[in-house]
Predict the structure.
Amino acid sequence: MGEHHTRGPDDQPETLFSLEELKPGRAHQAGKSPEPPAGPLFRDSPAARRLLSVREIHAEPAAAASPRGRQILARFPDARVIEVDSHWRIPELHGNAGNLERWVRIKSDVLVLGEKKTLTTRPNGRSADWIAPGPANGCAMACAYCYVPRRKGYANPITVYTNIEKIISHLGRHVTRHGTKPEGNQCDPSAWVYDIGENSDCAVDALISANVADLVDAFSYWPTAKASFATKYVNPDLLHLNPRGRTRVRFSVMPSHDSRLLDIRTSPVHERIAAAGDFLEAGYEVPFNLSPVVLRHGWETDWKLLLQNMDDVLPSAVKDQAAAEVIMLTHNRDLHELNLAWHPKAEAALWRPDLQQAKRSQNGSWKVRYRNAEKAKTVNTLRRMIAENAPWLRVRYAF
């Protein structure tokens, strides 16, 4: 993916416009996040507290002392605060196999505060042009197919990065350096798309801090870029923001039969679908992830029913702008072994050696995916079912 720039005398990219020429969001101007609306917020509701009831916070000293860190500590005043040297190396959490017995409780009770030390934006080209440095890592939900837990080792609570201003500054420089998108692609016809939630769910992150609000606010003023994140959680607080069409919320959906088994602690699928109209009206783009597609007896019937339900309940305005990403299940042996310790029923559906093959991923790790012929047949079947039952749903890509 080529950069749209020329070289200046200092051999640095010469941008088409400067960061100062872009009208910055309020987070840039005032050094603080957008003002919350008056009245009660969803993040303070019993439903949100059931998902996140933080009792223990592991914090790097600099992260705890930062403005964002102080806001988070004030939000959970009764939590025990434990100083740590690194958010990646916490012996009580990472590498402690005993945590498998408390897999879900840790996600609810424990929070980690750290600073994101390495800020990189790397090419993607599928859902987004770029993978941005996200505002968090980990999740309070517990989807059985999630790849993030294997990287952190036996525990996967949310780690919030408190140096959000540096993340936004990094992204602002990247946006201005690349200027106007020279031609459209499957990600977007005119804007550079940045995935801001690769390793977390931004809708859940927004229950903890204003990091996501700051990012939505910043992208709302960047005319050549859009933010994007996938979510399995309906957080009505996001409706109070003003994305101005520059943030894409991709609601992940799957048949309820699969979701009840695999999407632990997420919003029910029917709530995600029902929220699409509200999010579109609030100024977001609202595509869908058909993800992950899990092959089991009866999967075709259940996916057909899901598509028919979407066709029945979604307003025409959502359909007019909707696009879909079809994502087949990927798995790996480390996650398989981890899941066997806390959710073996899920593995009966996820671990299918009779249908799967090993494949090296883009980052060099080995994953298990459906065999090529099985995958191709399934994708073709899904495309046909979409055309028959939800013809308005454009497939952005399938893999």
Remarks:
- The CA atoms of residues 5 and 317 lie 37 Å apart.
